[in-house]
Write a structure and sequence with these properties.
23% strand, 9 helices, six-stranded mixed β-sheet, elongated, single chain, alpha/beta, 413 residues, 17 strands, 28% helix, Purple Acid Phosphatase, chain A, domain 2
């Protein structure tokens, strides 16, 4: 049984984009849809038995009609090839208010063939071309729903989180105990696990997370544990595999170094029990690059703009989203030609920022200790020496300064 596992599609993220002249939509919307297309086309080309979407189809709990249409088109493309799809509800798909529909419930309304919705913690039985499979769905637990079903009066947010964690752990244990050991079984969850490493998605989480222990979802009765919610791809356990595929497209510079993609797992359905996994792969996608270029300008740099441009040339910024961070002394800021820098960045997809971190001037080091007296001429000479000024100019400045000092002394007498 060949299964494709992805999560955190986040259709609707449009930061660092601009209107596409052909489609009239954000170029970043196109980025996210193109990454989803890679999953869809791969699943069809490789005759997948099942495609798992482990939460956060959309950025917003209230996706626009365009976002819903584009997502539905791609789900339909998969199911038109008789491939079952399992859609798990994530925190970005779920409203805060109890009893309101998730952004995925419309598929249930249409009774779409081959589409299965995981919006409750329960076990689903799904038929595939290679036989049946059991999927325990662990959607994002809406705190509002939990509070209305439990006695949480007087509890702090932290205490409520601990109660959610305890309750979920007990419910998962019950579902696992009821699995049929002769049929492959997967847990699909949109949740934070204690041993996971995060990228930038902490800024996207709506409210403070509850966090499950890895041990609460680990069981040899499960053949694979497919997760979503954390944007960084990682494998938390090997037997059974506990996997975050990560998000398909980079959201911001916090994910600059993260490799993006989705996962595939192959299960041996002929085995009646024991470890069924026979193959696992991470499939990279062509996510748009985010590039940070860092430059430090010295106060002795005669051509700071050229220094910045030369550093940019060492990076492949073509079609990337770029930010430039320049450390620069205050005395050099006016020498920086931002227009020339932007011209050098013309092949980038988007210039996120040109940041100037202005450094305080370094103190001039004098040859004499402060306890000794120092003449104005000596102070000026030390200043000019520190600035590495041309010798002829330095000589002329010192001569003029000496004339001014002498005139001042004559006036005083």
């Amino acid at each position: 049984m060949f299964i494709v596992h992805t999560a955190d599609v986040h259709i609707g993220v449009e930061n660092y984009g601009f209107p596409d002249p052909e489609t009239k939509t954000s170029t970043r919307l196109i980025d996210f849809l193109n990454r989803l297309d890679e999953v869809v086309n791969y699943s069809i080309a490789n005759n997948a038995d099942l495609v798992l979407f482990c939460g956060d189809a959309y950025k917003s709990r209230n996706p626009t009609q365009t976002h819903q249409r584009e997502f539905a088109k791609r789900i339909a493309k998969i199911t038109n090839h008789n491939i079952p799809v399992f859609l798990l509800a994530g925190n970005h798909d779920s409203p805060n208010i109890s009893a309101q529909a998730t952004a995925l419930d419309i598929f249930d309304t249409f009774d779409a063939p081959y589409v299965n919705i995981g919006d409750k913690l329960k076990t689903h039985h799904i038929e595939t071309k290679s036989g049946p499979i059991q999927i325990i769905s662990l959607p994002w637990i809406r705190k509002g729903d939990f509070i209305t079903s439990q006695n949480t009066k007087g509890l702090s947010n932290t205490e409520i989180n601990r109660l959610i964690e305890k309750t979920i752990t007990e419910l998962i244990k019950g579902e696992i105990e009821n699995l049929n050991p002769e049929i492959p079984a997967i847990l699909a969850g949109h949740v934070s696990i204690d041993s996971a490493k995060t990228s930038s998605e902490t800024s996207m989480m709506l409210g403070k997370d509850y966090i499950l222990l890895k041990s609460s979802i680990t069981s040899t009765k499960l053949d694979y544990i497919a997760l979503g919610h954390i944007h960084k791809h990682q494998i938390l356990n090997d037997n059974p595999k506990i996997v975050y595929p990560g998000s398909l497209e980079r959201v911001d510079f916090g994910e600059e170094k993260d490799q993006k993609g989705f996962c595939t797992i192959t299960l041996d359905t002929d085995k009646e029990s024991g470890k069924r996994e026979t193959d696992f792969n991470f499939i990279p996608v062509n996510a748009r690059n985010f590039i940070t270029v860092r430059i430090e300008i010295k106060d002795t740099d005669a051509y700071p703009t050229d220094t910045v441009i030369n550093e940019i040339k060492t990076h492949d910024i073509s079609d990337a989203i770029v930010q430039i961070i320049i450390k620069i002394p205050a005395s050099k800021v006016t020498e920086l030609n931002e227009n020339a820098i932007r011209k050098e960045l013309s092949t980038a997809h988007f210039i996120a920022a040109i940041k100037k971190n202005i450094l305080e001037e370094t103190r001039i080091r004098l040859t004499k200790p402060l306890s000794e007296s120092i003449t104005p001429k000596e102070a000026l000479e030390a200043y000019l020496e520190e600035r590495d000024i041309d010798k002829n100019l330095k000589k002329e400045v010192l001569e003029r300064a000496e004339n001014i000092i002498n005139e001042s002394q004559i006036d005083e007498t």
